[in-house]
Amino acid sequence: MTDTTHMAEAPPARARRGAATAAPAPAASAGPAPGGKPRSQQWTAWGFLAPVVIYLGVFYAYPLYRNIDLSLRDYTVRTFVQGGAPFTGVQNYSDVVQDPTFWPALLHTVIFTGVSLFFQYSIGLALAVFFVRHFPLSSVLRALFLVPWLLPLIVSASTWSWMLSSDSGVVNAALHTVGIGAVNWLTSPSWSLVSVIVANIWIGVPFNLVVLYSGLQTIPASLYEAAALDGANAWQRFWRITFPLLRPVSAITLLLGLVYTLKVFDIIWIMTKGGPGDSSTTLATWSYRLGFGNLLPQFGPGSAVGNLLVLIALVFGLLYVRVQRRQNAS
Amino acid sequence: MNRNTSRRLALASLAVAVILTGASACGGSSGSSAGSSGSAAGTYTVWDPYPQFDAGSDWAKLLNNCGTQAGVTIKRTAFDTSDLTNKTLLAAQQGNSPDVLIVDNPVVSTLAEAGVLTTTDDNKIDTSQVLPNLLGAGQSGGKTYGTPIGANTLALYYNKSILKAAGVDSAGIKDWASLNAALAKVKAAGKKGITFSAIGTEEGSFQFLPWFWGSGAQLTDLASNQAVSAVTLWQNWLKAGYAPNSVINNTQTTSWQEFATGQYAFAENGTWQLANAKKAGFDYGILPIPAMNGGTAAAPTGGEFVTVPVQSDKSRYATSAKLVSCLTSAENLLTTDTTLSYVAPTKAVQDKQVAANPDLAVWVQAVAAAKGRTGDNLGTKYPKISEQLWGAVQAALTGSQSPKDALNAAQAAATK
What ipTM score was computed for the predicted complex, to two decimals? Predict the structure, then answer.
């Protein structure tokens, strides 16, 4: 693998050096052919770059630009179609922040993301540690834990919403048999956020399990043997060896989990539509509701909320890069 | 050196080839999309919100027949109804609007506001036969932007055997008091009372409006005493256990599924469930929704409008109008509305429908009392009011606010 990349890289580097020194001399006598060399190289370089540049431009830069542009103008349906929406600066952002939905939605987003991440990670890690020891049927059990990950979100969310239904759901039926009264999981403002968080944790555990499990494989067994010889018990082995050595993997797992969880939309939308009231509205569902959930779309505020979400994810991404850099430096 | 050059050449040509194929693929696709909806003579695009009908369905055949009669080929695309508004706005932004657009009636005023639709003055579509209360949803600022293909509305389905067991006579349900009395008897008989949809979307407002209007309230004043009494009616049903708590999260489909279990005496649902009602396996009847003090409450009209979006090439309107009048001709309306389980928008076709199926009489009565959500000159103000209304209903039903407080807050937010 490394050999081939070296081979592929090396010749052009040599050629470039050769061309840079050799080209000027014959250029005077022999016209276009040698003079074209550096230019053709440049074209080659651009040729290689072009697919990536075009791809990034069309699929990332332009949509992002459009989204920012949408959020900085006062779009009505008329100006959306006919053009000429007036530039209003940060008006949409200040409207959004002053909206009575904003602070609850932000709080729900923080709770939803924080609680989901905590449980997804800790349950995922516990399961990963559990499955590291091989025992009969361990791979079958591990495969079973992947089911939530493999199901399409619409299926799992609909199933959860059916299970948690106040009157005909199996959860309330089960509670009833043990003598606990029915809980309005999806229709009570105090439970709806809990319900969507529980569903989201269930969906997110397999991802954490898989990544952390493969992270555990990289920790040399000799360390555990040495620790065992020194008399460390299982608890100490976990906190002194597993956890510290897993830190880089944990960091990337949590960062990816954060980005996935911040933008979770389908589960909440299918289960509660962000309701009742605003009780399970997060920034992601709110953004959708503003842009598409109403007969009269409000593109400006909707994209403003979307951009705020992007910004939050970006802040944590940069934080991660910084921590990573500091770790590499030390 | 020589080998390097040839390799570089090979790589460069490869890269160029990749770019060229990429570019030609782009060019090809954009060319074909322009051709499909714009200039290609003889091909007319139709967008509809009926993805349940595939290419072999009666609806698709009707479209093709109308195309043949007008001497053009039809290219039909079916969208999910919730997708259609944004798809249409985007297409209009790109100058790619379909020639004929069939769209949910409360969206017409939004699209008209966006300047996407032509008026009947421009496209010369004849709407003289259409019942005025149904045409209302497609009118805005004194202009008409299309013609209804059919109408549906809400009424109360009831389970005959449950009412009989509880000793309720359905003919005696004339106002809210008699309905409440009936619900109390059903509950006493150990059955469940009524199911409806109070979800936090347009569906929730759609289902609440018959009670809202039936109380005498107006959409321009959400905080009126009548409005409070309508929300209180629903709230009391939940408190008294006449209606299940799940209504707060019910769509009309899930609400229907509850009724289909055979445990519920009443269900508020639409014309489109008729076919399912026949499959439910129990004897059902249909009542118009009673107003607070008797009589039939005005229910909101549902159903789609056939519209002609604005085109840069104005000469296309003539053929589009031919297509529209073919789709909405008396004979075709009868088949279409039978397939869709809708009530026809013209008196003549309604009479034929009732003659063919006497069950529809109560629906015709309900449609006659119905009114458009965007009517009363509300137009694009309606979506904002509706969002506040469903929010207030949810706040009251979950008990987080009293009906009065919830509606006051809603009115304040809707007029902001």
Answer: 0.77
